[in-house]
Each structure stands twice: as C-alpha cells, then as structure tokens.
Amino acid sequence: MSRITPYSRQSADELSNTLSALETRYERLKRNNVPLDLTRGKPSDAQLDLSDALDGILQGNYESADGTDTRNYGGIRGLREARELGAELLGVTPDLVMAAGNSSLQLMHAAACFAHEQRWQNATPTMLCPVPGYDRHFTLCESLGLPMRSVTLQDDGPDMDQIEELVADDDSLGGIWCVPRFSNPTGTTYSNEVVARLAALPAKAAHKHFTVFWDNAYSVHALHTDAPALANVLDLANAAGTQDNLFLFASTSKITFAGSGVAFFGGSSTTLDELETFLSAATIGPDKVNQLRTVKFLKGRLTDHMAAHAAILKPKFDVVEDKLSTALKGLSVADWTTPDGGYFVSLNTLPGLAKSIIALAANAGVKLTAAGATWPGGIDPDDRNIRIAPSYPDPQELDIAMDVLVAAIQLASARYYKQLLDEHSARRDDPTPTRSQN
Ligand SMILES: Cc1ncc(COP(=O)(O)O)c(C=O)c1O
User: Fold this and answer.
1) Nearest in space to 286 (alpha carbons), one of 84, 98, 21
2) CATH of domain 64-299
3) Are 38 and 401 within 8 A, CB to CB?
C-alpha cells in the first residue's frame, strides 16, 4: 500500500518534489530499456509445452470412434468425439455443436456472414458492443460494414436496462457481442440474471433476427477453483423461445496449441442445419486428424489440464495485482480489475491519460495494447482504458514491465495534477477582471 499522499491533495511544493522524483525514476527505467511486450493475450511457451504430447499421440491410428478415416475429406459438423468436447466447453448437447477449423474468430466471421446474408437479408444492422471489449470483434464488424454502438459493461455483465430499452425501440439494432465468462479485457463473468435477460433479449428486440453472439472463449479458463460459474444460456434461450437467435462459440486455442486448436459453434438445430449448408460452399470438411488427436489428448483430463494452465498463469496475475496495489492503491489515479480467469486485466487511468501513459511505457521499452483498442473504432471517449495481457512474458520480465507501467502511470498522473495546480494559480494571479455577465 502506498504511503504517499494522493497527488490531488499535495501542495505545490510537495507535488514538485514528487514529480522530480518520478521523472528521475522514469529516466532511469528508460535508460534500462528492456524490450517487453504486454500487447496480446498469447499463451506462454510453458503453457504450450503442456500440450506437446499432442505430437504423435495418434501413433498411426487415424480412425474415429464411429470408424471414420479422419485422413479423408468430409464431415462438416466434425467428429462426434470432437463435438462432445465442444459440448463440454459450451454447456450444450453434442448434437447442437459443430467442430470446425482451428479458430473461433474465423467461425464468428463465417457466422456473421451467414447472418448477414440469410437472416438479415444483406442489410447491415448495428451490433451492440459492451465496452471495454475485444478489439477483434470490432475489426470483424468493420470488415463486414456492420456499424457498432457501445453499451456499458458493468460488474455483472452488460447494462441490461440500457440494452433492453435500446433494442425494443430500434429495429436497426441486429445483434450483440458477449464474452460471458472472464470477459476480454475486464475478466467479468455475467451474473445469472444478466444471462437470463440476454437469452430473452431477441424476443424483446424490434429486429426480427436480433442475434446474440456468445463468444465463450474463456469458458474453462479459471485461475482458481472458486471462480464464478456461468448460467446455461442455451437452456434459458430454449425457455424463452429464442434459441434460433443465439450463436455460441468456443475453441481449444488457449487450451492446447493456440495455432492448432479446434473451434466450436453451438446453436439450435435449425441454425446448425442452415450454417452447415452455408459453410458447404467454402469447405469440404475440417481437419479431423487434429480433432482426433485433440480429443485423445484432452479426454477425461480437461480439468487437470486447465489447472496446469492456471498454475502457470495465476502467479503472473498476482504480479500484476501486487505491482498495481503496491504502487497505486490510495493514490486515486487508477482502478483495475482482479479477474478470476481469462487472459487480461483492465485498468482505468485518470481521464485523458491512457494514450500518454502507453507512450511513456513504450519509450521505456514496454509495449502495451494501443489506447482505445478496447472501444469500437479504436476510440475510447475518455482515453482512460488500458488492457494488460500478462500471459506471455515470464514472471521476471513481467515484474520489470509492471515497474515501467506503474512508473508511467504515476508520472503522467503527477504531471496532470501539477498542470491543474499551475493553471489554477495562473488564473488566481491573472489581474484581468472577469467580464460581467450582465
Ligand atoms: C474473446 C476472445 N474471443 C476469441 C478469441 C480468439 O479465439 P480463436 O483463437 O479461437 O480464434 C480471443 C483471443 O484472444 C478472445 O480473447
């Protein structure tokens, strides 16, 4: 815990001293200039090593449980045993799952193209985007010409009062992006009530084909065993009669090898049939050999495997939390999330400072995700959100990177208050009389 008086309460002299100490420390860190990268949520080498047994695991046996020769073409819905794995990740039955290529993002793109062409009749409705959110969802929308509208992400999920009111009145709103468990970047897990309201949302929307894109990328990526669970959205959608308007996504990208995983789509049987037909113009079938080896590797040991990931990741999240609270708690210059899972920590600076803090960190060698990336169009209206991705660097590197980040936050915040004080005293010393209003 910081014993320093908050900068906002320091006198001009105190703040000048603080600032010169912070400038000196920052210059020292800048001279060290260790190049470090906290930009993307990639698994570390140690995490990838956990899945090295994938290589050669089939030992020449390419036959699936139902006798399919996985080396050959065919089977757009994927192997039965792979769909069972997807069902475990998505919390649905295997008959409502498609096991596809190696990337859920690619499936989201395909599903959005399918919705655009067949459900939205080639119109480009606006997608609601809870913010801060996942930048690649925004890029995907941009690439398809789908406008975006930001909605607030609260501690228990998207602001449903705001969203229900918006969609009921406006038939140009065609869908919403959701990362319901350990959201990117805040780590939020949606509450049972929010999940139920999202499941029922298409029934309240003015747009006939309002679609909930449920990107459950981190469904089993808890950092500890007490992490909050997620309600079953498809069960709730079935109860609300909205099951055709719900697209579920997951993948093993951050379970096995990030570049050689298996992606899953879940939805109603109507949606699956329609999507299968749509996809059949683009593929004769997925990589079933990879599906078979992934299932063979994970079968019966998903929980243990994810615990091994957590054992590598948790100490890194602890470094982030420890550095932030030691340097910033009590200073009133930032707040941040302490996630129970996922890959990110979301930090809010004082308004207007995120860009300059990221630039200060970059000048001292530490790369962070660009300011604004967590907002549609890359513009954070308050310029205050910073996404921290602690997974890739080793704990020692992370320690150094966090020292640079907190030094940048302290320096930019102290400069901000110093400027406020200077402006205030300039106004006080200014002899020009203020013009009378009447
Ligand atoms: C929320 C979210 N969805 C999807 C992805 C990408 O998943 P995939 O590798 O399966 O394409 C990521 C990766 O960071 C993510 O954070």
Assistant:
1) 98
2) 3.40.640.10
3) yes
Question: Of 108, 141, 215, which is best to mutate to test ligand 1, by the most ligand atoms within 8 angstroms of its C-beta?
Answer: 215
Whole-number Å distance, alpha carbon 105 to ligand 1 midpoint, is 6
Which residues sit with their C-beta closer than 6 Å to ligand 1? 41, 103-105, 134, 179, 184, 215, 217, 251, 253, 263
Domain boundaries defined on the chain: 7-46+305-425, 64-299
Count CB-CB contacts under 10 A for residue 173: 22
- Span from the CA of 411 to the centroid of ligand 1 (angstroms): 33
At 102-136, the pLDDT tens digits run 999 999 999 999 999 999 999 999 999 999 999 99
pLDDT at 432: 63
CA of 188 to the centre of ligand 1 (A): 16
- Beta strands at 173-178 and 211-215: parallel, antiparallel or unpaired: parallel
Could you write out the DSSP letters of every residue in 28-45?
A: HHHHH---EEESS-PPPH
Can you tell me which residue has the tokens 């038939």? 171
One fold for both 7-46+305-425 and 64-299? no
What pLDDT score was predicted for residue 436? Answer: 40
Q: Write down the pLDDT at residue 438.
A: 34
Burial code of 22-31, b = ≥16 C-beta within 10 A, e = fewer? beeebeebee
What architecture is domain 7-46+305-425?
Alpha-Beta Complex (3.90)
In ligand 1, the atom with minimum distance to the C-alpha of 252 is 10
Kindly report, residue by residue over 410-431, the tens digit of the pLDDT. Answer: 999 999 999 999 888 888 777 6
pLDDT of 437 higher than 60: no
Tell me the C-alpha distance between 255 and 218, whole Å. Answer: 9
Overall pTM surpassing 0.85 (yes/no): yes
Are β-strands 126-131 and 173-178 bridged in parallel, bridged antiparallel, or unpaired?
A: parallel
Distance CA 366, CA 398 (A): 10
Whole-angstrom CA distances from 370 to 356, 380, 393 are 11, 10, 18
**Residue-averaged pLDDT of the chain:** 95
What single-letter amino acid sits at 319? V
Confidence of residue 40 (pLDDT cuts 50, 70, 90): confident
**What is the mean predicted confidence (pLDDT) over 311-324?**
98
